[in-house]
Amino acid sequence: MAMRYTVARALRRPQSALWKRCLPAPATSALQSRRCISTAETNKDVPKPAVKFTSETYPTIQRDSRFSQVTPEHVGYFKKLLGGGSAVIDAVTNEGASEDVEAYNSDWMRKYRGHCKLVLKPASAEEVSKILRYCNENKLAVVPQGGNTGLVGGSVPVFDEIVINLSRMNKVRDFDEVSGTLVADAGCILEVVDQYLAERGCIFPLDLGAKGSCQIGGNVSTNAGGLRLLRYGSLHGSVLGLEVVLPDGTILNDLCKLRKNNTGYDLKQLFIGAEGTIGIVTGISIQCPQRPQAVNVAFLGLESYEKAQQAFRAAKGQLSEILSAFELMDGTSQNLVRDVTKNKKPLDGEYPFYCLIETSGSNTEHDSAKLEAFLESVMEKEIVSDGVVAQDETQIKSLWAWREGIAEVSGHFGGVYKYDVSIPLKEMYQLVEDTKVRIEKAGLLGDTDEHPVVAVTGYGHMGDSNLHLNVCVRRYDKKVESILEPFVYEWIAKREGSISAEHGLGLAKKNYIGYSRSEGMVGLMKHIKTLYDPVITLLMFSAVSSLITNGCRAQRVPDVDVHHE
Question: What is its EC number (predicted)?
């Protein structure tokens, strides 16, 4: 009891004008403004080297000679179709547009870079249809692209593929305020759609740190999970219908607005998480719940991963229906955010682990009472060592910035190897520790320039056992890659986890699908790809496409003990 009193007093003692260590005051109203991702210019003082071409980094990947190169004649067709102007970025006939094309050639991590010379920006499904039909007939390879915020190189070309960017398809088509059903173009920015819904008392059932850039079509195509999955489930359950353009130009219009529709096969599920390999999503019908009227956010410090698991179990039991997020962050990730942004951490002490808990409900007094009871319980049991609770919307955004800012600061020193994986919760953080030990033994981790690795961090969603393993580097290095791969995938496979939790396979994981899928399942995927895209117009370097074109089999897990290498 004495320990509970001491910790409770620490939580209640004001520390600064910004942070108040106290149990919940009345909760804030529903969030409507932009959520901060970071609070400083993270890369301002670090020179950015040129991004190396993917074809040079991975010389074993060869351009398929069956596909045509883009000619001025092809460009002329697309300009006539789309009207030229900003809808067509042409570096085929206009070398002066090469710099404009570069933004679509590289991913935001600066790890992948293609040779694309033509970017098309259709404004409707009909235009997408005509583009794909023409490309299919003329054997022109295509890469669909949304906000280009992915982690696996799936939205950028490898060679000279045509990029179809959906940013001009950005309109809300319909919204039913009674049922909460939204129909919108695939190119709508997630944050913009969420703000539109906020004005109407609803919320988009997905939240990401990249919400200011990512597009909802890309979210659906990768089955993005994000920060609200604990509360609202995956997009497989929220999406009611899709409009998809198949590789041959056929428009599949299934923008159903009903939650119940058992008429034949539920074909939309094939395209959710397919990464654009069998069709380009151009429209979405999705169920959007009522926006919570009471939001609380607590930021906690814990002494071990075991304590974090105990806190999560307690939160599920005591907060239950109002628990909307439970995020795990290790101390290394939080120190990176502090060092790069130069901001003061929410808690004075240093802890190995931190958890961010969000509750969302409709009754302020009820939610505050439940959160207070939860905090008192975990303090009394010495599960939580310290914590703060946000007192207003500004503080809520500031606390979230410590979680959402990790992704951005991780690449501050030059680059980052990112692994988005699912692991049984009990062993989730062990991967971070084993990876760090492996890198240290290889002499790759250190404070000097001769060491390529700056830090190994782990954070993620406790609610769905989704870990983000980040290896922050000063430069991309083959020695680091050889230490990480296939070790990470072998480690995960031996625990029956998934090598891709919410970002897909893309180019980065195309050779490793066999670590999470059986030979029979991979074979079925090949059949589906062949059925929908026999020419392999879409994403010719994706995992399934490569298995078809190269006639190779998915790599299997070798019989080794990854713990004692």
Answer: 1.1.99.39
